[in-house]
Amino acid sequence: MPRFSFRRPAFVLALAIALPIAGATTAHAADPLIPGTCQDIHHQNPLAKDGNYILYNNGNLFTVFCYDMTGTPREYINLAMTGAGQNFSQYTAGGASPGTNVRTTFTRLRIDPATLTVDIGDLTFATSTGSLMQGGTAVTSMPYGAAMSCASPQTANGVGNIDLRDTPFKVDNTFAVAGYQATGTATVGSDDQVVNLSGGGYCGWITPSPAMYNPFNPSPGEYHLKLSCAKQSLVLSRGQFCIHIS
Hints:
Blueprint: H1 8-18, H2 38-44, E1 51-57, E2 60-67, E3 74-78, E4 88-92, E5 102-106, E6 108-112, E7 117-119, E8 126-129, E9 132-134, E10 137-139, E11 147-149, E12 158-163, E13 169-171, E14 175-179, E15 183-189, E16 194-200, E17 204-208, E18 223-229, E19 242-244
Parallel strand pairs: 4-11
Antiparallel strand pairs: 1-2, 2-3, 2-19, 3-6, 4-5, 4-12, 5-8, 6-7, 7-18, 9-10, 11-17, 12-16, 13-18, 14-17, 15-16
């Protein structure tokens, strides 16, 4: 992605005004600079509602979905690819983990606007199906960007998928295998916007680096997947953009 050497205040304001998001409320009207977080937007306008907004943070100008604006404002990425087999993580049942496959599917991702790092443990916009037992623990959900199984040594039948197509972001992270007699792969394609995952062992898994320990049943606060701006063009058909301004 090329970097642009414009002066921040004038360029950011001009771009924000020139590129309104359909159906969204931009925050530039209350301040000559674009806010860096959804909390900043709330401070500027306590009546601001949940929706798409423009943020400028750490050299990046980008759109996010601001959620819970009347409570604890938080930033999310809207995922376009939400069909079967897209943007999911699965712990495949079998072997030492009896039950049914646990699959968690995501429609939005929590992101730290300062680092463009995804909180893979935030399940606010995720749904999970299936249930299995690992030892004495009931497993009912998985973090984003993970695949796991406990079928047999060196068997990677856990699966997962990251699909950022039709968003202005790409994956800027490596992946790591962990566990006992673990194995797995991360196959990256489509301009670093799609990653297909396989992971397993007895028990084993794959997650974004650094590898998590027993990643099932995640909690918010697990910032493990780094993203960056992906598109050459500023605006996508879905009204989202991301550009790094040096």
